[in-house]
Amino acid sequence: MKSALITGITGQDGAYLASLLLDKGYKVYGLMARRATSTTWRLEFLGIENEVELIYGDLTDLSSIIRAIKVAKPSEVYNLAAQSFVATSWQQPVLTAQTTGVGALNVLEAIRLSDPAIKFYQASTSEMFGLIQEPMQSEKTPFYPRSPYGVAKLFGHWMTVNYRESFDMFACSGILFNHESPLRGIEFVTRKVTDAVARIKLGVQSELRLGNIDAKRDWGFAGDYVRAMWLMLQQDKPDDYVVATGKTTTVRDMCKIAFEYVGLHYEDYLVIDPQFYRPAEVEVLLGNPAKAKEKLNWEPATSLEELIQMMVSADLERVKKEATSNDNLVKYAAATKQ
Ligand code: NDP
Ligand code: GDR
Fold first, then answer.
1. ipTM
2. Ligand 2: which of 85, 89, 188 to mutate, most ligand atoms within 8 Å of CB?
3. What three-state secondary structure class fits 5?
4. Whole-prediction pTM value?
């Protein structure tokens, strides 16, 4: 039986990847940071919380990663853990560098010191392109990150390339464009919108406050994207791949799709709030997934409309359940006023 270790297993991608690997017959281990409150809700949502083995550890603690590798004896390690919210990376740049940047190096070092034959996947990002000059970004597009997060990820990306070239390790970097799902963190714009649409529809929220709605993103479904991660580690040779849909949409149009799905107009509820603008913005992202299609035979299976509908439906169901008691309704109404 193949064994895999996933860092960031409690995150959106970690949960979907764990589910995929379990379906493929892997024994799945997850490195999980110790927190004061439970973080396993995504694993529970997918019904796999008892199917995976969770090992406490932190990406900034090399010894804990070495220990996790000793326990899991994996043939594949997927490094998905990170401080992954771009906006927070200006407020906590050092933590972001240590977790998102040096954390990736810690995992590479842990593998090199334990068993360099272990295959490694690094969760790289389209945020590394940042202030791009090319209309479509591919593996050959130069990088120009625009946030401490993007800079930290670029360090992890080049370390992955460097360990492949220096130590002949099977190390791959997946340059993934934005991907979303009902399991997306609530602070990211798609989920913030679909959650607001559900609350507004059910009468427990009155407005939605956003920042730069002219930003354009290439959005796909997380469930499709974790398949590409796995495929990268099944190839004969390690390499880097862009994973994207090849379509870009403004935040404004994404809002329109979400509100229209429940028969509302976004213009009636949207408030532009300067607090959600970023010190430096990535205005547009549009990926070219041609290499992933050719070499991995990977293609996205979910359209943006299907994705947004899936997210709004899940949020409607959740908000309905949460708002069954009067107490909760009062709480939500108060939270909306803040
Ligand atoms: P999430 O923010 O949902 O998950 C991040 C995970 O990292 C969580 O499990 C979190 O644990 C864990 N984590 C954070 N800090 C540490 C630490 N110090 N030690 C151990 N674990 C830690 O991210 P996604 O699932 O959306 O993304 C997965 C990866 O892919 C990330 O690296 C992200 O930067 C990258 N990426 C994501 C894209 C996207 O559109 N989703 C696109 C391109 C790249 P906890 O639950 O305890 O907070
Ligand atoms: P991003 O995702 O920064 O692309 O990073 P996010 O959903 O946070 O922002 C997308 C775009 O929407 C604009 N925006 C807002 N964003 C948020 N979060 N909240 C708002 O109120 C708001 N208003 C407008 C942003 O300015 C931005 O242009 C995600 C993360 O998953 C990263 O970890 C990953 O690497 C990249 O995607 C690819």
1. 0.99
2. 188
3. strand
4. 0.96
